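Instructor's aside before we start: the two examples that follow are unrelated to each other. I chose them only because their records fit on one page, so don't look for a connection. First example below.
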Amino acid sequence: MNLTQTAETFGQDDQSWLASAHGTDTGRSITLDTSTFTAGTHYPAGHFPSGLPLGKITATGKYGPYNNASSDGTEVLAGFLLTAVDAPSVNTIDPQGVLFWHGAVIEAKLPVAVDSAGKTDVAGRISFF
């Protein structure tokens, strides 16, 4: 039996980018392809932040960071990461997440900006305010 005192620190998920609760109950389970993300850019604090724009990689069905200049499927915005996900210590482990694929977002509060092509990709499913 271990009776040693330990301390844990928990962060708070910032979902201030959500304009309403609409769509948060219909998130889709997804797998993130950690090898497609850059530590200092996409998860500088050790986690993939809520609101991160994602695209679906055609070859694997996993999700990576949205990038309009890509040609692997991630050039099409699929939606946003609904809740923060801890980043693994190695990029060969692919964690599960939830895709926010329809609803409304506050554009200025997204952790990464979305270009006009991305907005066109989700037109009719996601509204930007």
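Example two begins here.
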Amino acid sequence: MFFGERLKQRREEKGLTQEELASFLGDNLSRQSVSKWERDESYPQVEKLLKLSVKLDISLDELFFDELNYYRKGTEKRKIDDKYPGFVSGLKTLARILHQIN
């Protein structure tokens, strides 16, 4: 289960609508943005990922479990790289920020 599906599942477990989650994240974020994340069409900025983690009471490791396992395996063919180059760049940035925090 990749990020979008896991996000949707956790949001529903917490009894939140897309509108409520978008409102919590602020900055005039729309329900459509949350919908795009849940369909894996785009990904939130790092700041919003951190807020999602808090609101949904889920670690970023859990939220990105399958993506992280994919990279840990070191597979030769990187389908995620090809399909979501912006996501890969953002995930690398997130990893650097989390490393600096620790």
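The radius of gyration is 13 Å.
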